[in-house]
């Protein structure tokens, strides 16, 4: 492993009159012999005595890369090279997730998460931005909330492994531009205000102590490309290695906002746009976060709805992946039509409620026509981003080798359902890849491979930003994409096939019941 | 001036939709265009908003060299390049002296000093070392005292100039090894304990905030060569440029300890030894520091002693320069002989007191035979260091182009008197150079000339340390050097001439009185 840190065991000769070099020189020249030109922090200088003598001059040095040189940030008695740890953090607006790595083997020893304490100041990012705009004390509250959330996760990792955060040398953090601004204590209004020039997008290596995090070396924040394409996406590039491949990939991170990268080792096009909160259950009346009691799986059978509920108890609402399943099933069963309108004659479950149709997907829980409409606008926005960008680049869907879906959405959503409603393109299912938490994954990769630092400059230089909102075309495409799965059904052969099969089955059923 | 800091005025384009680079990127790329690849501190990132906008994107960046790259440590609105300051500090065991520089012109704007507050823990270094040995809280007291003393001088400089210390970017500090250890918070017992391997001798650039000093960038501590040859001596090399010259120079810093360097651009021999506290008035019964009431000049005329007293009032004691004058005058007048023994028949001022002879040099103030003996041992130790080292190198006194005497001693002592008693060699007086506070001078030079950093490595590599105490020869030479001016009178032709002139005068006077 050639990561951002080193642990090196030094067996040094004790000072004699003939060799009365300083402890500092003795250690640094031994490191030089091992190929590391390093400097020593004041903290380590203050530890030299009596540590060196007591340890019989058998010492382990912790080296941290600071972006331009190696820094000796910790010194221990004896050989502790086996205890070589580092941390990767995904700082999400809702959840903070961290992994503890053994930096000798590259093995992830534990992963844990916590809610981002900033939620107390607003569940969505914009509320937090307005809350703290031009108010340094409030910005400081948000900064502390972020740091506190990270520390909470690090403590959980310590409980799991017995390894204290101070035992880690480096911490690599990935987050979107707003999250990184808050984490650094920077006003984030710039992220959403024209001309969208943010304050800092390449903060690099900062001393962990300055950021109030307990690792012994530095915190590296993943650089961002622009206001909407933050470090979490760049980290996703590293996780998927999209920028190294010959084949063209699509990388799509869909949440309230959608971030998209299309490219390969030759080119990288990127863009971002608002998808709306529908995908996270935000607008849907009975929508909820993916927590206990949320319907996350839906199947519509002859016997009605079969539900998968988080925690297994009574359903309390429906989360993003549940909604997509529900829509796919309603569509395949013909309970909603191509335009997403309820077909009330199809089932008694479709009732009129509050002046519109709604389907009772669970006892007392309804999914309304307005929910469907909202959701379809969102899915149209999302799928149009991909369509538009491929069009701009003159790339057909058949040219795509891999279609990565990142984030919680990619992790939980059923591929089949997402294709059925036209959210994902209709392509070989093995090309549709759930990239998982690629932000966290990329943070870990960088922690363990210093060479990636050089590649990041290349990635950022290569990325060409494409504005979605600015084009008339875009709206037109989006209207077409609001159909289920799409106005142009030929793009969805597998969905057409399913529809045919279902209608055959239904005919059979009809025949049987007749 | 190409020093350790830069101030650069940047007129940046305001962000537009077409150029929505981050403020950080905007500033750093403008610096790159000016030839400076820099990184930005967290503190500056936090200042970007609203500063950049308010300043209409006309900003002045303060860059500090950190030993391996440029760091943007301060950002100001408008063009403040004219206010470009830096500090040089000589951290002495008794006195802390600092200079404030205009880093654009290289001009020293003010100099001031304060007593080192560590004196409260012991006037001599050894007491302080024992006080704090293995006692971190006491070491911390000493560290705070050093820092407090420096801050006090910086405040005095602010009063004189109106320029706050925070307006300076870098601070270069020179001090002996013990002083630098205390300043950094390092136990200094190692300096005096065999095998004399100190803890840190190349601390380099450390963030000023970590050292609790108010400059915006870094504190650079001059590196040391060994326990007794500290940063103050290396700084003296830079001040005198001895290591650049073709002719061979001697650099001699005499106090309680003597530090010596002999060499030129080809070689550098160095050594150090205890001279004893006599030179600083430490052992002499009526000796005192060079403060108000101290006799600093002595002339012996027909009418008796003519005294120069610091502050002009009644004499209270005698300081180093006064002692050397006194001895020279006593010797030339024949009141003490070649071996330094009082010749009581020469004057009624020589009386028996406390079982020995003593001369009353001022009303009620006596200089005893034991004082003379002690002082001659000290001067013998000092002059023998030079003699021994030149002997080792096969260099004759005639080969010496310049003989620098550094420190307070060199500043105040009369060259003539020092030659007369054999403390200095008998050479052309213009070759005997008072180097003044060369430690402070070298600190200032480095502040203003970054290239010197590279030269320091050369200097340290080239220096060859010669042990004085270890050689039998040394003691033999020292005994010979205890005579006035030296057992080998032929080395002191100018003193012989003076003696002859005085004896002629006295004969004339005798004849007149007869």
UniProtKB/TrEMBL annotation, chains A, B:
The chain positions of domain RACo C-terminal read 248-495
List the Pfam families hit by this protein, alphabetically.
Answer: RACo_C_ter, RACo_linker, Raco_middle
**Which InterPro entries does the entry mention?**
Corrinoid_activation_enz, Raco-like_middle, Raco-like_middle_sf, RACo_C, RACo_linker
**Transmembrane annotation, as ranges:** none
* Residue span(s) of domain RACo-like middle region: 85-245
List residues of the RACo linker region domain.
Answer: 5-81
* Name this polypeptide is given: ASKHA domain-containing protein
Which classification does the entry list for the species?
Bacteria, Bacillati, Bacillota, Clostridia, Lachnospirales
């Amino acid at each position: 492993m050639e990561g951002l840190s080193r642990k090196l065991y030094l067996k040094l000769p004790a000072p004699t009159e003939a060799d009365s070099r300083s402890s500092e020189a003795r250690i640094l020249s031994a490191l030089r012999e091992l190929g590391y030109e390093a400097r020593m922090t004041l903290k380590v200088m203050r530890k030299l005595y009596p540590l060196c003598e007591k340890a019989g001059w058998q010492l382990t040095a912790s080296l941290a890369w600071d972006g331009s040189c190696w820094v000796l940030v910790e010194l221990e008695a004896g050989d502790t090279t086996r205890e070589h740890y580092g941390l990767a953090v995904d700082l999400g607006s809702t959840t903070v997730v961290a992994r503890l790595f053994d930096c000798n083997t590259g093995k992830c020893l534990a992963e844990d998460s916590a809610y981002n304490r900033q939620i107390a100041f607003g569940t969505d990012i914009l509320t937090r931005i307005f809350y703290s705009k031009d108010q340094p004390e409030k910005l400081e509250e948000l900064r502390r909330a972020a740091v506190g959330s990270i520390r909470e996760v690090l403590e959980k990792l310590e409980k799991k492994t017995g390894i204290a955060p101070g035992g880690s040398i480096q911490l690599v953090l990935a987050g979107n531009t707003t999250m990184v601004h808050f984490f650094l204590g920077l006003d984030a209004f710039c992220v959403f205000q024209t001309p969208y020039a943010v304050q800092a997008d390449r903060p690099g290596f900062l001393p962990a102590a300055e950021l109030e995090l307990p690792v012994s070396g530095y915190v590296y924040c993943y650089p961002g490309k622009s206001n909407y394409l933050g470090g979490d996406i760049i980290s996703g590039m590293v996780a998927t290695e999209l920028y190294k491949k010959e084949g063209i990939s699509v990388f799509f991170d869909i949440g309230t906002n959608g971030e998209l990268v299309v490219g390969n080792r030759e080119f990288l096009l990127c863009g971002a746009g608002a998808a709306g909160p529908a995908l996270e259950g935000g607008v849907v009346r009975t929508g909820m976060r993916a927590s206990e009691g949320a319907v996350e799986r839906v199947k519509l059978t002859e016997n009605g709805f079969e539900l998968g509920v988080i925690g297994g108890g009574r359903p309390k609402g429906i989360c993003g992946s549940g909604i997509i399943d529900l829509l796919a099933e309603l569509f395949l069963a013909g309970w909603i039509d191509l335009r997403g309108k309820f077909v009330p004659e199809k089932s008694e479950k479709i009732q009129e409620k509050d002046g519109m149709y709604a389907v009772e997907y669970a006892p007392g829980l309804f999914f309304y026509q307005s929910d469907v409409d909202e959701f379809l606008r969102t899915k149209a926005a999302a799928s149009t981003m991909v369509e538009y960008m491929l069009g701009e680049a003159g790339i057909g869907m058949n040219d795509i080798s891999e279609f990565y879906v990142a984030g919680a959405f990619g992790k939980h959503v059923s591929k089949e359902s997402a294709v059925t409603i036209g959210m994902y393109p209709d392509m070989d299912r093995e090309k549709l890849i759930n990239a998982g938490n690629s932000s966290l994954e990329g943070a870990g990769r960088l922690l363990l491979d210093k060479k990636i630092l050089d590649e990041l400059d290349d990635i950022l230089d290569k990325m060409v930003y494409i504005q979605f909102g600015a084009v008339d075309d875009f709206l037109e495409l989006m209207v077409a994409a609001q159909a289920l799965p799409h106005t142009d059904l030929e793009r969805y052969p597998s969905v057409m096939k399913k529809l045919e099969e279902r209608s055959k089955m239904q005919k059979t059923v009809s025949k049987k019941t007749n």
